[in-house]
Amino acid sequence: MSTTAALDPRTRLLLEGPIVSTLLRLGAPMVLVMVAQAAVGLIETWFVGKLGTDALAGMALVFPAVMLMQMMSAGAMGGGIASAIARALGARRLDDADALVFHALVIGLLFAAAFTLSLLLGGRWLYTRMGGSGAALEAAMQYSNWVFAGAVLVWMFNSLSAIIRGTGNMAVPAVVTVGGLVFLVPLSPLLIFGWGPVPAMGIAGGALALLVYYAVGTLVLIAYMRSGRSLLRIGWAHCKMRWPLFKDILRVGVIGAVSTVATNVCIAIATALSGAFGPTAIAGYGTASRLEYLLVPLVFGLGAPLVAMVGTCVGAGQRERAMRATWIGAGMAFLLAEAIGIAAALFPAAWLSLFDSDPAMIAAGARYLQIVGPFYGFFGLGLVLYFASQGAGKLLWPIIGNGARLLVAAVGGLLALQWGGDLGIVFAAQAAAMVVYGVVNAYAIAGGAWFGRPGWPRLPGAWARA
């Protein structure tokens, strides 16, 4: 294990640069990345909506599973990868940082295989339990089988992006992700509706377009890491498997995966509860909740540089700076998510009518946005503190917070149905769950969950040194 006295300029920026401007500078390309990735799903949804409400409902059934894979590969395991690399670079363990590249890709391959087998074999059972039936269920199966057959492409793309982010380089994943949209926008309708010699594939065409997008992006990221411009390289020199390096990724990634599962189970439960009110309710909730999923990439745009900054500071022993960065990022994420939620609550039709014109679908989706939207800030708060906890390598309380959110959403929704409640009460349970999630995470971290001493934000001093 070798060290070096010299610090890479990106590592030095994370340790010494002004916090606010550094987070904004690094976060801007990541916000662009994540908005672009969210746009991938929105573009597909817009085109699939032209196939009818059954196709839209089928996509809504599959969406929690697709987002589970996206969030686990980019956020949970991706955060574990970025955190491990950032801590190794912060501690100047450069050989370990290089070796973590190979270990990260092995983990990605194993998780991709697990997703492929689980959804190809158990997809119909899952979507049926979520309320799918008839044409909507068949549409879900078409989309699901295509997407999860190519799960390895999603995992490799997000694992490589996480490796690069762990070095403090947010620009390359941003350029690759946004650049891929140039090809996806025309490719998606081409494969869905067909043109000339290209046959119409329907909803399966949307899935194939998505896989082509990730395949091309993966090849570009591999080419970058094989070049001399990357701080870390893909090569044979560090291919020996070492359990401590797997553990360094997994101790953050697996716990983060549990939190990610809880988030998506929460959405899946709400989808299933909405199914009690018919396919249009599923389509309405599924379309409206895409805005909630859009918050994930937006907050991730702040969370990704926060993982790198907190991880690098912890690795270098700069605990006070890690805490300052955390609370500054938390305030920024809360305001961003709250602004979006309030706008959605005031103008729900502006979002929902982008995807379908069915009045019943729009009515169901509008109720969700009007009830839950004003509480999006707490979701943003809890989520960004989860990312910061990844950087610190301390994820127990984010897991507890997400578990509490799941419990409130599930129990509240089920009780609402048992007591003859309507769809609005199901959504009210979702709103309460978001508040619980944000408050539990903030209280735990402020109370010393990371370093065993109170860590409440000290204002205005924290901002004065930002």
Question: Describe it for me?
Answer:
It is a multi-pass membrane protein. It is found in: Cell inner membrane. It comes from Rhodoferax saidenbachensis. Its main location: membrane. With 466 residues, this protein is mostly helical. It has one domain. The protein is built from 17 helices and no strands. The protein has helices at residues 9-16, 19-49, 53-90, 94-129, 134-149, 151-166, 171-193, 203-226, 243-274, 279-315, 319-346, 348-352, 359-372, 376-392, 396-418, 423-446, 461-464. Helix 2 (19-49) runs antiparallel to helix 10 (279-315). The longest helix has 38 residues, at 53-90. The two termini are 34 Å apart. The model is unreliable at 1-5 and 459-464 (pLDDT under 50).
Write a brief caption for the model.
With 466 residues, this protein is mainly alpha-helical.
| Mean of all residue-level pLDDT scores | 83
Number of domains: 1
The major beta sheet can be summarized as: none
The coarse overall form would be: globular
The chain-level structural class is: mainly alpha
The number of helical elements comes to: 17
Our estimate of the beta-strand percent is under 5%
Distance between the termini: 34 Å
What proportion of the residues is helical, as a percent range?
over 70%
Q: Which parts are unreliable, with pLDDT below 50 for 5 consecutive residues or more?
A: 1-5, 459-464
Transmembrane segments: 22-43, 55-88, 100-123, 143-164, 171-195, 201-224, 249-273, 293-315, 327-351, 371-388, 395-419, 425-451
Main location: membrane
Keywords: Cell membrane, Membrane, Transmembrane, Transmembrane helix, Transport
InterPro entries: MATE_fam (IPR002528), MdtK-like (IPR048279), Membrane_Transporter-Flippase (IPR052031)
